[in-house]
Design a protein that fits this description.
About 35% of the residues lie in helices and about 20% in strands. The protein has about 300 residues and is of the alpha+beta class. The chain folds into 3 domains: about 35 residues, no CATH class; about 190 residues, no CATH class; about 30 residues. The protein is globular. It starts with a helix and ends with a helix.
């Protein structure tokens, strides 16, 4: 009897130990598809599957944006690409980028085709497109992100408390140093946030603002990259403050080199419509003046004939 009780007690203790070990085990907090091994967070070995390649990543930090885009561009087993309806704000959309070993974008991108272009550190195209001989001398840094988003409701919230909550979200969830959050403003339903980080301000190991912007956009659109346990929220006085419709503008340390020679079809169509409207307006104006001129000439001619009849 005593032996069976001891065995049951031992089994219970073992289950408790296993449960605690599993609860404190290793997980990839910054990517829901990251795979980790190890029984201690401090000794986690994590990888991010990229097709046939397993890329080692630090799951306690944001995964570089280049690797995230590459992950999304790889077709799933069902043949569909893992991307939401609005994957990127930039005009070129999602593409399969070429990345450096540290996860940074390569300055020149070709997306597996004969068409190439240059990108900034956020992976956004900053030049025209060319052929395989297209040259990109450097990877230009994106030092400023202008973020715009809308609040979900019109409830009155103390602006000071809301600013503090937004800063806390950036520093705790995305591990961004507070000094890089340089502006938070409110105008009606809109919230404006500036993130600035030039090359000299970014220390080795610091999170990049381009990565922060990508994670934030995914969080707001309900397509979070984080582990399911890491829920996105902006908490103000104990209540969740909802935001929507993120829009991000990228400002580089050097001006973009996109010329007017390679306009998109949409822009060309708009220009054609405007030009046709102007030409049509000019034609109508000329025809109207011609008709008016003919009428005035006819009127003068009739007056002259009437004057001749009266004098004769």
């Amino acid at each position: 009897m005593k032996i069976s009780m001891v065995l049951r007690l031992g089994t219970t203790l073992l289950c408790c130990v296993l449960a605690v070990s599993q609860a404190q085990g290793c997980k990839c907090t910054t990517h829901f598809q990251g795979k980790c091994t190890g029984d201690d967070v401090a000794r986690c070995q994590c990888i991010l599957p990229l097709g046939d390649v397993d890329k080692s990543v630090d799951c306690n930090k944001l995964v570089p944006k280049c690797l995230l885009m590459k992950k999304e561009s790889i077709p799933s087993k069902g043949g569909r690409r893992l991307k939401p309806e609005h994957a990127l704000v930039d005009n070129d959309g999602l593409y399969n980028p070429d990345c450096e070993d540290n996860g940074a974008f390569k300055a020149r991108q070709c997306n597996g085709t004969d068409t190439c272009w240059c990108v900034n550190t956020a992976g956004v195209r900053r030049t025209d497109k060319g052929d395989k001989n297209w040259k990109c001398s450097e990877l230009v840094r994106t030092f400023w992100l202008m973020i715009q988003m809308k609040r979900n409701n019109t409830d009155q919230v103390d602006e000071t408390a809301l600013k503090a909550a937004i800063k806390t979200t950036f520093t705790s969830r995305y591990k961004l140093t507070e000094k890089h959050v340089t502006l938070i403003e409110f105008e009606g339903p809109f919230i404006y946030i500036d993130l600035k980080q030039n090359a000299s301000e970014k220390a080795p190991g610091d999170v990049d603002i381009a990565d922060v912007g990508y994670y934030l956009e995914k969080d707001i659109k309900g397509d979070s990259i984080f582990h399911p346990d890491e829920k996105f929220k902006i908490s103000v006085d104990g209540k969740d403050f909802g935001v929507q419709e993120p829009l991000i503008y990228y400002i580089d340390e050097k001006a973009p080199e996109i010329s007017m020679k390679r306009l998109t079809a949409g822009v060309i169509a708009v220009i054609v419509v405007v030009v046709l409207a102007i030409v049509a307006g000019i034609v109508v104006l000329v025809l109207t003046r011609r008709k008016k001129g003919k009428y005035e000439k006819a009127e003068v001619k009739e007056m002259n004939e009437m004057q001749k009849e009266l004098t004769s």
